[in-house]
Amino acid sequence: MASITIRNLEEELKTNLRIIAAQHGHSMEEEVRCILRQVIGQHAPVEKGFGSKLKAKFEDAAADSFNLPERQPPRMTRFE
Fold it and tell me: In 1-80, where does DSSP find H-type helix?
């Protein structure tokens, strides 16, 4: 897990954070994590990887819609 340090935080802001955290039954640190999750979760879209993009493009073609033949044991060759 990563950690950050916030410098030059106004004393009034720190006091309000401490009060809000206590009202929610959290530490100040946990309260800040909750606030960041709420704010960043709403505004920062996560870039999808190639596999996710590919799946989204072809998700309408479900695997069970294909009529695939049943698997057969491998055929013997004349070299065996």
Answer: 11-24, 28-43, 50-58
